[in-house]
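Protocol step 4 of 5: obtain the predicted structure for the target chain.
Materials: sequence only (see below). No template structures provided, no constraints applied. The aim of this step is simply to have a reference model before the mutagenesis design in step 5. Sequence pasted as it appears in the construct record:
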Amino acid sequence: MDAHDDAGESEGRPAPGRGDRSGAGIASLSLPYQVVAAVALAVVAVFACVHLAMVFLHVAPSNTLTKQHGEAVDDWVYPEFEQNWKLFAPNPLQQNVAVQVRAQVASADGTRRTTDWIDLSAQDARAIRGSLVPSHTEQNELRRAWDFYQNSHTDDHRPNGLRGRLSESYVRRIVMLRLDERRLGGTVERIQLRSAVRAVPAPPWSTERIDTAPVHRELPWWQISAADLPRGTQDDRTEATR
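Step 4 output (C-alpha cells):
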C-alpha cells in the first residue's frame, strides 16, 4: 500500500480528537453546553407556564384562586401584562339598532303622499341571511353610515363641523339609492330617518327581565337635491328643472 492509499483512507475518517457531531441542535453540542441549554429551556418553559396561568386567572371570572391569591396575580400582570377586551369589543353590542326611513313623494299629477316607515336594516338582514358569501356593502354600509352620523352630531341633530355635514350627505345618498330601487312611483322630495333601538333579549335560561320594546329617535326632514340622487335619476331631475 502506497502513500496515496493511506491518504484516501484518511479522507473517509473523522479527524482525530474532534469526535463525530454530525447531528444538529443540542445533540451537536458538548456535554456542558447541552446541560446549560437544557436548563435554559426548562426555565423558559416554566416561565411561560406561570405567565399563562397568571394571565388566565387575571381575565377569568372570580374564583377561589383569585380570591386567595388575587394580589399576587395583580402584581404579576400589572402594568406590563395588563389584559382587557378593548381590542376586540370596545363597546359590546347589547342593542339591535334598525335604521328606518319614510319619504314624501310627489306624483306626476301634482299630489303628494308620505310613505310608511321602511326598515332599511331589515332589508340588509334579509339580503345576507343564508348567504355563504354575503356582500360587505349589505353588511356594513348602512350601519357604518349611521354610526358616522351619530358620532358627528349632537343630541339635537346639530353637525359637529365638516364631518357632520359630510355624514348627512353620505346618509342621504345611501338612503336615496335604496329608495330608488323600490320605485315609489313619483319624485322623492323629502326624507326623514329614525332609529329603532331594541335591547337584546335575555337568553331562555336567564331569569333576567329586559324590556325589548323599541325606542325611536327621529331626525328632522331632509330636503332632497339632485346631488343626493343616484346618477341616472340625478340626470333626469336636472333635465326636468331646466
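Step 4 remarks: The longest strand covers residues 187-199. The chain has a mean pLDDT of 82.
Proceed to step 5.
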